[in-house]
Design a protein that fits this description.
This protein is an alpha/beta fold. The chain is built from eight helices and 13 strands. The longest helix has 15 residues.
Length: 277
């Protein structure tokens, strides 16, 4: 398995991959806590370092570029300093930002994590989760359909921030069948999963799978039943259910389910683990 995985990862080099979805800016404030505020019973974080990284779909695009792929980003940011910073971070990671559109009516999604000595204390989200308007959706859809024609694969990251509409998924599914190109979707945590019908591969986590299927995943048998239900109900070629430290359940259409184990490590922050999967 490890040798085959290494071959597949190496094979990403020079592949053109369109990454469409909800692009975010991840901001990290690192510091230490030495006292409690006099204003309220809360710790005071003394910040000594700030980091910024592409988040959401941006995390996936940057990871693909790091693996040697030619990643093309398609999404929406606000006309603000955070949007400009996110574009710059993506370009610095080797990602094409040709499909990153600017919407002056909404802010760039920003997630700020406050960390004291490797312990995350608080996360602050600045965002709009309203679905993008018809004109912006049409522009994004046109770019994605055109880019899919020359892509080796299309990845959609749906974080329910408004960029991934039912229409966008439908347009991409049609374009990917036409060329043909695999369409891989990381679904939103909640919502109507029927608008992912007809994509090639869905990669929900445990909670998302339970929401979509109504099956409580407590063991390998339940994971296999959930995978079969996803494949059947949504007409998928495969479903990959991520199960935290228990690994992944991979179900292919017309085949059984294969459990892929994980090696558990002690880490202080698992942010982005699902995106890398």
């Amino acid at each position: 398995m490890s040798e085959r995985l290494a071959e597949l990862v190496t094979g990403l080099a020079k592949r053109r991959i369109l990454v469409a979805g909800d692009y975010m800016l991840d901001r990290y404030l690192w510091g230490s806590v030495d006292r409690i505020s006099q204003e309220a019973p809360i710790p005071v974080l003394k910040v000594d370092r700030r980091d910024h990284r592409p988040g959401g779909a941006g995390s996936v695009a940057a990871a693909l570029a790091a693996l040697g792929a030619r990643a093309v980003a398609a999404g929406i940011v606000g006309r603000d300093a955070d949007g400009k910073l996110l574009r710059g971070l993506l370009r610095a990671s080797g990602v094409s930002t040709a499909g990153i559109l600017t919407d002056r009516s909404r802010p760039t999604t920003v997630k700020t994590r406050m960390i004291a000595r490797s312990q995350q204390m608080l996360r602050v989200d600045e965002e709009s989760s309203a679905e993008t308007d018809a004109a912006m959706a049409a522009r994004l859809g046109a770019f994605c359909v055109n880019a899919a024609a020359s892509a080796d694969a299309v990845v959609v990251q749906d974080h329910a921030k408004g960029a991934v509409t039912r229409g966008l998924v439908r347009e991409l599914a049609g374009a990917c069948r036409k060329h043909p190109v695999p369409l891989i979707v990381d679904p939103a945590p909640t919502g109507d999963y029927t608008h992912y019908r007809g994509v090639t591969l869905l990669t929900p986590n445990r909670a998302e799978s339970q929401h979509a299927t109504g099956i409580r995943i407590t063991d390998e048998d339940a994971a296999a039943r959930a995978g079969r239900r996803l494949v059947r109900n949504l007409n998928l070629k495969a479903a990959v259910i991520t199960l935290d430290r228990e690994g992944m359940a991979v179900t292919e259409k017309g085949k059984g389910t294969v459990m892929v184990p994980a090696t558990a490590l002690e880490v202080f922050d698992v942010t982005g683990a699902g995106d890398v999967v």
